[in-house]
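INTERNAL AUDIT FORM
Audit reference: QA-55
Scope: verify that the stored structure record matches its stored sequence.
Auditor: D.O.
Record contents follow.
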Amino acid sequence: MAEDTLIDELQAEPIQTDSKPIEDLLKAIQDHNFTQAERHFNDIVGDRLQDTLDQAKVRIASAMYNEPEPEEDEEEDLPEYEEDDEDEDDDEDLVAPV
C-alpha cells in the first residue's frame, strides 16, 4: 500500500530547456508536417515520462535507505473505554421477577 501512496504523490517538475518543444510541435502541425510533429510529440512525452520515473527512483531509494519517519498510531489518539462488569449486573436487577 505504501507504493500506491508514493505513486499518487509523484508529480513531474517543469522541464527547463532552451528549446521550445511545444511551440515546435504546434508549428509542425500548422505546416502539415505530421511526421515531424509525431517526433516532437514523442520527444515531449518521453522526456516527461523519463523525468517522472527518475523522480520516482529517487524517492523509492530515499525511502529504502533513509530512516523512515515514525508514523503516528491512530489508535493512540482514541480514548480507551473499559467495560464494567457491574453495568451488566445492574441491568439484570432492573428486570422484574415473574
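Auditor finding: record pair retrieved intact. Residues 21-67 form one domain.
Action required: none
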